[in-house]
Write a structure and sequence with these properties.
mainly alpha
Length: 101
């Protein structure tokens, strides 16, 4: 389990999005309750769908375990999926907020 193929890019994507907000865009998105509510809603859909796709008993999506951290929760979801999901949704919302002015 080196994590170089999936874990490192997942962590880097989160760090890139955080840096984008804190150093460049400065939208204040992380201080808005609506943002955190939207993340709860996203997780509400991500967990059952991702859980079904990645369940170890009969996976639809198969990960090379040597390329991940091996940490899975809940429903056998690789933690990296949550990191990428956070980065993707947050990046879109940051750009949206920035363009809104």
């Amino acid at each position: 389990m080196t994590g170089l193929g999936y874990t490192v890019p997942a962590v880097l994507s989160v760090l890139a999005v955080l840096a984008l907000e804190w150093k460049l865009l400065r939208t204040g998105l992380f201080r808005k309750a609506a943002y955190w509510l939207s993340m709860v809603i996203v997780l509400g859909f991500q967990i059952p769908v991702d859980g079904w796709l990645t369940k170890l008993s009969a996976p639809v999506v198969i990960y090379n375990e040597r390329q991940t951290s091996g940490l899975r929760f809940p429903f056998d979801i690789p933690v990296e999926d949550f990191l990428f999901g956070f980065a993707l949704v947050t990046a879109v919302l940051l750009v949206w907020e920035y363009q809104r002015g």
